[in-house]
Amino acid sequence: MAALPPDRDEQLSLEQLSVDQPKKLDNPERFEEMQAPEQPDGPPRPSLDTLPVEILELITNELPWPKERTPLTLVNKRLHVTVQQILYKTIVLQWGTKRSPVQIAELLRSFTNNPQLRSIVKEINIMPCNPFFESSPNAKIPVAGLHEALDEIINTVGRGEAETAAMRVVAKAGETRAIMPLLFTILPNLETLCLNGHIAAHQDALWAFILNCLETALRSANPEAPKHPFASLKHVRLSLNYHWGHNDITMGFASTFLSLFYLPRIETLTVHAPYGTPLEWPGTDHLVPKHLRTLQVEAYRNDGNGIVKMMLKACPGLKTLIWTVIWSEDDPEGFSLSEMSSVLHEAPGLSDRLVLKLDRSYGKGGSLFGPRLLHIQNPEDFVTGELTLAPLVHIKWLALTWVHLFGLAPSEDLQLSPSTFPPDLERLSIRATGLVTQEHLFWKLFDRVLAARDFLDTCHVYAPKLREVAFGISVFAEHPLEDRIRRDLEHAGRAQGVNIVFHPLCFTPLRSVPARGDDQALPEDWKWAVPSDDEEDEDEDEDGLEIDEVD
To answer: Compositional bias of type Basic and acidic residues: which residue ranges (predicted)?
Structure first.
């Protein structure tokens, strides 16, 4: 065998050198620098393993989408547990898309492979993003690897043999609407359920399952009966909107949903009632919703009074009521504060908060509180009657809109009386309304300021225990004198021992509303200045309007 060239032998010998015999370099100083350990310039960077759980949760919450959070589970074990808790705490199902069946199948497989995930789920939010997606009712869930999961889930439910066999038959068919209810049967700690949007045909089976579970639990007198899937629910948000062609479904289930009031642990119930749907209370006269504390109702003005009155009568332990009155384009008549007051008198036990809101309904011609209100002949008569909340003796916090207090247009009197407010009222929030540009259509800025000042000057007559008044930003916004207006109102409040707050978080600023000239203009001869605490000199102009002198 021929010998290798010398240079080749030298190359092989260098490759076979051990680690403790490193290759010599021409520059000895460079060699020593490479062998020395690297010294960090500053303090060592903290590892994710040493961060507290609260910091890890903040890091995870900064990523809005689940697909961005999922890779964090591969970083380390601590972050895996933290991200997993956040990922499965709230589940959002977008109903009415081609992705819906696949999403449900993946979720069921996850719960089957990792049973510990079932106890993590606290909230399910079903959001139909396309009510006209007609292929959803008969969409098939991918059955690959799903049959075993369905068998385990059905057996876990632990119901009777006949019911279990029926569930297995419909589940094997692979229909979305048949498998969807199985999610609720395996979530022992589910606390919040949101059913938003339209009720279409593909939700028929889901509604039937939900209501059947509720009615079965209510009628069962056996305390050892199987625990129904919604026994742990505390908060429910329900929207009974429907679209054309499915009115019969809404009419069939709108009355039965009232069984939600009797859930054993229900605390908060938010209901958006459909327009023109009659409601009948279920045949459970012997039961009383003992645990319901907060009720939020959104109902159309035409039939909303009857719905709210019926609910208040059935909830003697109610503490907080949030009532939103919605106008419809098909019902442009006035709004009676007296009728609203008579409904509120059905809940004298309210002791936490009373929130009264106004909103609008969009129709074929756009928003009702847009161009249509401009054609009202007598806007001062659009809101009639008087708000009387004196029977609500336990209310200490009241939030309402500018319209509830002062109507839809300026008038000579405030139309308030000592019976307007609860006798023990301590906090009052004058909220911005949901009626688009309502204040700017009929109330000039000058009229709004005078109404607010007159109210503060006499608030001790209407509410002797009042200590705080919060105004919405949109009431006085978008004017050069906004700061001076605020300071003057704060001074008027201090004179009565009332703290004035301008709270931007509780109100909706009219960012998209441009200044409207006459609506935003003050009289040319009206000079505004904040009066000092030591000296207040007030004069009257030719119209009898009190103004403050400028130093």
So the answer is: 1-11, 21-33, 516-527
C-beta of residue 93 within 8 angstroms of C-beta of residue 103? yes
Instruction: Name residue 285's amino acid.
Output: D
Q: Phi and psi at residue 127, in whole multiples of 5°?
A: -120, 100
Residue 453 and residue 488 in contact, taking contact as beta carbons nearer than 8 Å: yes
Q: Tell me the Ramachandran region of residue 84: left when phi exceeds 0, alpha when psi lies from -120 to 50, beta otherwise.
A: alpha
Confidence of residue 20 (pLDDT cuts 50, 70, 90): very low
The side-by-side arrangement of strands in the sheet containing 235-239 is: 90-95, 123-128, 192-195, 235-239, 268-272, 294-300, 320-327, 353-360, 397-401, 427-431, 468-471, 499-502
Tokens of 116: 């510990």
Which stretches does DSSP call E strand in 328-405?
335-336, 353-360, 362-363, 366-367, 383-384, 397-401
- pLDDT confidence tier of residue 266, bands split at 50, 70 and 90: confident
Task: Please classify residue 168 by burial: count the beta carbons closer than 10 Å to its beta carbon, then call 0-12 exposed, 13-18 middle and 19+ buried.
Answer: middle
Give the model confidence (pLDDT) of 211-249 as tens digits: 666 666 665 545 445 566 777 888 888 776 544 334 444
**Which residue(s) pair with 304 in the sheet?**
none
Least confident of 154-163, 200-209, 538-547: 538-547
Query: What residues contact residue 461 under an 8 Å CB cut-off, 6+ apart?
Result: 418
H/E segment holding residue 400: strand 397-401
Using CA atoms, how far residue 132 sits from 179, 190, 238, in Å, is 21, 29, 20
Q: What six digits make up the tokens of 199?
A: 């009720």
Query: Is the pLDDT assigned to residue 312 strictly greater than 80?
Result: yes
Tokens of 39: 């010294």
